[in-house]
Amino acid sequence: MIQAWLDLPPFGTFVTLAMLYYGVTALLIAVVFASPLRGPIARFQGVVAPFFSSVAVLFGLLTGFLGYDVAERNRQATRAVQAEAGELQNVYTLSIAAASDMRDIRVALKDYTRSVLKNEWPTVNGFAAPPTSIAYDRMLTEISAPAITRDSGAAVHVALLSSAVRVGTARNTRISLSTDRTSDLKWISVLLLGIITQAALALVHLDKPRTTMTAALTVFATGAIVALGLIALQEDPFSGIFRVSAVPLEHVLSLPDTPELPVSPALPSPPKP
Predict the structure, then answer these.
(1) What are the residue ranges spanned by the domains of the chain?
(2) What parts of the sequence cross the membrane (predicted)?
């Protein structure tokens, strides 16, 4: 149920939270002022404000922990994408700086990047796309060619292989984070604590007029809706409003397969005697 709620579009996420917390607000007002339980509940008048604060602190702490978990996962996803794009650019730069012609490596690198953006980025299933795996294997095959050591040296070849392996590691991290979700138990705990906090807020306002209690419960409900809604929108790092950007990988695609080497400016002729 929690995952189905988190998969809703932003409008549905906020509407669901509004129905929950504003509904609880209306229910508490009805129970306190217009139900047969009004008399027994009135006996609890005199509950002091610090009672509400103790429950609100628990709600705030759990909400903070939940927000930190979601934000940390998004930071890890961003670092994984940047690491993957950075290592791809390292391979590209090494292929340019080497003495031998490595155009085939650059073409394979671009094919892999294009496959990531087309076949893996739009999907969120936690599995590597077969076409992207084939493109990665083809890139490794080109980089593993023995002729690179002979033509460009062992140091260049080792650096190319190391960068290619780190590309695969960053890719695996990105794929695993695409389906990593916060535990349903954490979300349920925070949502229930929000309701309990509303009940505590109603208890400390039993001796106040209906309008005062309604205003207090509404303000708290609005704050909970905004805070939990914004956290929920960041639950999936690769979709939604706050998704990780694919610009670093798109930049790799913009690199030319055969870059033009800069031409040294001609030296001025010496003056004639």
Answers:
(1) 1-254
(2) 12-35, 47-68, 187-206, 212-233
